[in-house]
Amino acid sequence: MKLSDYAKKLGISYQTAWNHWKAGLLDAYQLETGTVIVNEMNNNRTKDTKVVIYSRVSSSQNKSNLDSQAERLLNYCNSKGYNVVNIIKEIGSGLNDNRIKLNKLFEDLDFDIIVVEHKDRLTRFGFNYINNLLLKLNKKVEVVNVVDNDKEDLIQDFTSVITSFCARIYGLRRSKRRTEKIIEALKNDKNV
Are 7 and 43 in contact (CB under 8 A)? Predict the structure, then answer.
């Protein structure tokens, strides 16, 4: 089937389907005319493939987005014929490398594919390290919305760096204020 028909069947945009083709996620080939033909038989995973949906938002203020993100991913997985064995919803910073639910997922490793909406939903930094390690274990991360171009990817990386430094600066300020309060409380206790 043509790539445009494949995109309609999955309920995704043509651009997303094109990104999947360019990323090598589809069993497809390109005709001399430029038309991409998707082999239907090989793109429907068997029910033996265990898929985990991982959705994340940064704060509890975005909790409604967490549910809709998970629902979109579930629809995506169902349309691809995946066997979804777990849906993980987590609230926490993408900069936090100690997220409880994500760490538990990596401890169990009872899945074949982790499906995420965007790379930064899994992690802000080190996505390729995680993906490469999982590939060595015959597992993979499937990103539904792949970045369209290198410029957009560069902008996302730049945003991640700025966010990281801002979080560290505000964390240091908060820590300094906490330390000052403790010192003040200790001084007040000595004076009593």
Answer: no
